[in-house]
Amino acid sequence: MKKSGSIVCALGWILASAGGVAPDPYRTIRDVRLIKPDSAAVGHRVDIESQIVAVNERNGGFFLYDGKHGIYVLNALQPGDTCPLKPGNRVRVTGTADPGEFAPRIIADAVEVLGDAPLPAAKTFRSIYLYSPQSDCDWVALDGRLISYEVIAASQANILVEMIRNEQIVHIQLPKTPANIGRLPELMFKWVEFNAVAGTISNEHQQYVRRVFYVSSANDFRVVGAQESPSVGDVAGIRPIHELLRFGTAGHRAMVQTYGTVTHVDEHELFLRGEEASLKVWMQEVPDISVGDRVEVTGLTWPQEFGPAFRASAARVVGKADEPRPVRIEATEDVFESLNYDLAEMDTQVLEIGQSFGLASDHTVSGNRITLLCRFGGGLIEAKLPYGVDVPDGVKAGAMVRMSGLCHVFKDDWRPWRRDRKGFWLQLRSPADIAVLKKAPWWTTARLLWVCGIALGSSMLFLAWVVLLRKTVEKQTSIIGAQIERETVLDERQRIARELHDNLEQGLAGAIFQLGGCRRLQEMGLEKQSGLIQEALKCGDPDALKELICQLATGLSADAERNREALEVVGGMLKYCSDESRLSILDLRGGLLETMDLISAVRLTLEEVEEERGVVCELSVRGEPRRLQHAVERNLLLLVKEAVSNAVRHARPGKIGVSLDYTDGLTVAVSDDGCGFHVERGGKYGHFGLQGMQERMHRISGTLDIESAVGSGTVVTARLDSAAVMEDG
Fold it and tell me: Which CATH class is domain 327-441?
């Protein structure tokens, strides 16, 4: 809404100007002050005649007052120019209205001096006007006692003066001129009357913050009453420190006198120790006074939370005492109000060194100072060094120190109607007030934080390294796994090729050799028999023919027997090859040993033999069974199957026994009660069967023994010593 109002006003101004009709300028201060801030921003024309009541000679600005209302005029000076204006000038100001920082003001285009006149009568300033926003720029009359002044070093134009008026501190601003600086010291602690402009300090939202009064010259202060030359007779008695501001004594508006022993001297402060209480004394200029002097001070009391403060106009030395010793405070004791402003001593531990920790505030001065945060008893206190003083050597966080200084008790602001002590802080007079009792340990909080930071950083780097290493290991593992898989496949292929070569190929080669022998026997028999037949056809003797026929029949019978035996051997070889190929296929599909141990696989084999052939089979185990390498168990299982199969096919047994002895290495024995055979001849087992079992045992670093005799059965024993038996991991 404010923005739209400004736009409407601006459009109205533009349209009026475009039409050749300019709006009438504002001609009274009241009209300008009634302009709304958004409207004032448009820049309404102003043409006012009024009287100057205060001037800022540095920048040329001044205040106008028409007897009822006041306003500030911004009148910029050219570089090097001096301000020709002075209070009492009647002027005509033309320019534009401006929202100002708090209330509307005028930006002057031209200032014409019309003449001089006595300043108008000022409005009596009542206490209720102190916080009234409507009193801004009023020309007012005040009285009070000037108690201090400060030439603001950071400002090129201002002197700040403090005055007590109606139980309140009032702030006055004077231009920083040699005449004003020279006049102010003689006005201190005088009761004065003067006229001033009521100024306003505001925030960025143009809201009232506090009041300040603008005075053009220190000569505007008029000393009144008996206070023109205060003397001992004007002082309302002399009182000890602990009796100031008691009931029945003079109030803080009356000059009083008190006394004590000096415990500390600063640029503007004295600290006095009295009979039962201590006092902080503020002076504009401190005379030549030393610690230990007994002094009398004259001035005004000022109420504080735990005892009065004192604004002194004069101080004189009345004697000399021993240098005051600090009051010892133990960590187990409470700090009483009587210690406020007194010199105290205590043992503490320094926790931190910085500018401020917010536990207490010293409102008497501004700026930054080095502050020590210390542990005292069960709480924390602050100890503040003088401004511009550094921490003495050896005083570091963690050190145990003995400190002496001025104790400042402060309250908790939660309940203003009670004296709730919140704590105290210590004002150190110099670095000598700190004595190191125990040096700070090397292992400090800062170093601990550094170590923790380094450890944390190292941990993060280690974790990052672990993640990268894990990824690298996973990558390498996948590569190694692929290589192992390829090598495993290659090894399995080589094993299969080796077994096919050792078993199937040899068996098939033997079968081919036997078939070749059969063919040669048939060819030889056929040739021989063909010759007999030719002879029989040519023979005419019946007896000779009969003999030839008998020879032919005998030869045919012998050839048939030899061929039958040879074919039986070929059949056994082919059966062996078939069994080997079936076992190889079964082993490629996982085999029995993939799902069970050697004992269970042997037991299952014997059960199949019992079911298919009706032969009684028994299994016995000695020692503690254990798993062996897969290749060892596989070859032993195949050996048992071969021995059992040979016994069933060739020995016609009634009972077959298999024993596994794990007592010393491993011994596998297969026995039967069959017909037996001549071991040296090979018997029905055939040379190839014995050779296959021998090769299996040689492959797994074992030995094979065969015991047999015709009519006594057969025992096949396979032995593996303990070094050759390796458990399967």
Answer: mainly beta
